[in-house]
Design a protein that fits this description.
It contains four helices and five strands. By secondary structure, it is an alpha/beta fold. It has a single domain, classed as Transcription Regulator spoIIAA, CATH 3.30.750.24. The chain has a five-stranded mixed sheet with strand order 1-2-3-4-5, sandwiched between helices. It starts with a strand and ends in an 8-residue tail after the last helix.
Length: about 130
């Protein structure tokens, strides 16, 4: 499955790998939000380093997924870290970061998991 999620303490982690259809991203996020294990008031980490789809997304698609996901995430999470691998991914997700601000979701883009976890107030040993 290209899109998956898991919980660890106060962290919800979503991983996107390979080709990730927009419908699957929406469905997985909806499933995660409905999961009783979802830590209300927690933090989120979305790992996009292995996504092959991200580089092909238009700004309209980034806006659409942000408009879908940001209000849902903001209602349940304090912060959301986006982890990418390339400069292109960084630029695309920086645009998503700006869109998320419309919904008061504190979001930041990172190149590595340890930095993202630190910003979220967690450490690798916690997760």
């Amino acid at each position: 499955m290209p899109v998956s999620y898991s919980f660890s303490g106060s962290l919800i982690r979503m991983d996107l790998a390979g080709i990730c259809p927009m419908t699957e991203i929406r469905e997985t996020l909806t499933d995660a939000m409905a999961d009783p294990a979802f830590p209300a008031g927690g933090v989120a980490l979305i790992d996009l380093r292995h996504s092959e789809s991200l580089a092909t997304r238009s700004s309209e698609e980034i806006l659409a997924i942000s408009e879908f996901a940001s209000p849902k995430m903001a209602a349940r999470c304090r912060r959301c870290a986006l982890v990418v691998e390339t400069e292109l991914q960084f630029g695309i997700m920086r645009m998503g970061e700006v869109f998320a601000e419309r919904h008061q979701l504190d979001t930041m883009v990172f190149y590595d998991i340890p930095s993202a976890l630190e910003w979220l107030g967690l450490s690798e040993k916690d997760n």
